[in-house]
Amino acid sequence: MSAPAAPVGVIRGTVRDAAGAPVAGARVAFADGPVPLPDVAAVTGGDGRFALTAPAAGTYTLVCRGDGGTATARVRVAGPGPPGTAAAARPEDVRADLRLS
Length: 101
Known about the structure:
By secondary structure, this protein is mainly beta. It contains no helices and 8 strands. Strands 1, 4, 7 and 8 form a 4-stranded mixed sheet that branches. It is elongated and about 45 Å long.
């Protein structure tokens, strides 16, 4: 049995309401991506922050639902840095801040 592939990126962000306040308990999930994705969601903490692991390089569509509305975002994950560099050993961090409407 082979080991699972290492993630190429982590999508991190903050969910805010229309007034700009952080939203706790919002669900952020993948709506689309470059590979089949599991049906999982990140739930924001009290500070509105979330993180989702991107399994492959490519463009992802995120959907968010929380008190105060919904939001979507598209983000591009390029993946780790070039082989032989320190960046090759760690996933890329990508920012995706969402505002509910």
